[in-house]
Amino acid sequence: MEGIMSDDSAAVHVKTEAVLRHDWQKAEVRAIYETPLLELVYRAQTVHRQFHQADRIQTCQLISIKTGGCPEDCAYCPQSAHYEADVERQGLQDPQQVIAVARDAAGRGVTRFCMGAAWREAPKGEDFEKVLEMVRGVSALGMEVCCTLGMLQEDQAVRLKEAGLTAYNHNLDTSPEFYGTIITTRVYEDRLRTLAAVRKAGITVCCGGILGMGERESDRVGLLQQLATLQPHPESVPINMLVRVEGTPLASAPALDPLEMVRAIATARFIMPASRVRLAAGRKQLSPEAVTLCFLAGANSIFVGEKLLTTSNPGPDEDQQLLQSLGMKPLESHAR
Ligand code: SF4
């Protein structure tokens, strides 16, 4: 089956059945992104059902294992030392305490545990050993284990893999063209290098971006095209909505229309059909109806827990109530 989606200049033909492709052109991705919304959601949901169980949602918990004081200048981030956001700095947590939090999460049905540290790059020495201890401990609980520690060298990736790391999160954030407006302390190529080191070590990739930072539609399309031309696709694609934090340069960025989230998620689902698409930060700014539309568009993973690193997230009761009312069930862990 082949559909025609119109582009500014020319008709672009896009197959409506799902295919795993890595050669997506920007014009094709734009044509998909600009499809009338209900048609786009319908197509995305059709593709979703070819690759995923439609009533399953993965629940992940994200905690900050080292908070604030980061030397990078990501304009959206309250943990950057460049800005005056109200975030209390905290050194690396005790591994056993982190493992205890993971154990508690596992008891609540959470199947993926993500640990984030505000570093430019993963450290050497004692702190790295502590991170390895955390990974080993969480992995022993049978959970999928993910870390986000900044840039990573190949030997560090290998050691994390040996400790049981399932996934490494490293977001591209936005399009290559818009990247320099948001971050000046590193370049897009640095991100791609870390992603390559992660892949080489046999760790799965969690990589997505943030919408609502003042980017244009073409930047959202550019981000999605970058993700969909990675080979293989990231197994996990977090789509975040900017949380505007006082003290950061993006504190007064204009609010994003929630339907842009739906559109981006549907496009991600269409062009990366086998990946888990995660409705990540910013969920508190979405109504239950908008979240439902995101699920219909192909999101099949969420973060649970009241906090995401340093910003707030819907409480467990709220989430449970929504998932129950939609008849969604938790996805089992694929860690073993
Ligand atoms: S997003 Fe990560 S790398 Fe950027 S400032 Fe925040 S903690 Fe540092």
Describe this structure in words.
There is one protein chain. With 336 residues, the protein is an alpha/beta fold. It is built from 11 helices and 14 strands. It has helices spanning 26-33, 37-51, 95-107, 126-139, 154-163, 176-182, 188-200, 217-228, 258-271, 288-296, 316-326, and strands spanning 2-6, 11-15, 56-66, 112-117, 144-148, 167-169, 204-206, 209-211, 236-241, 276-279, 301-304, 307-308, 311-312, 329-330. The strands form 3 sheets. Strands 3, 4, 5, 6, 7, 8, 9, 10, 11 and 14 form a 10-stranded parallel β-sheet that branches. Strands 1-2 form a two-stranded antiparallel ribbon. It has a two-stranded antiparallel sheet with strand order 12-13. It binds iron/sulfur cluster. Iron/sulfur cluster binds at residues 70, 72, 74, 77, 79-80, 118, 150.
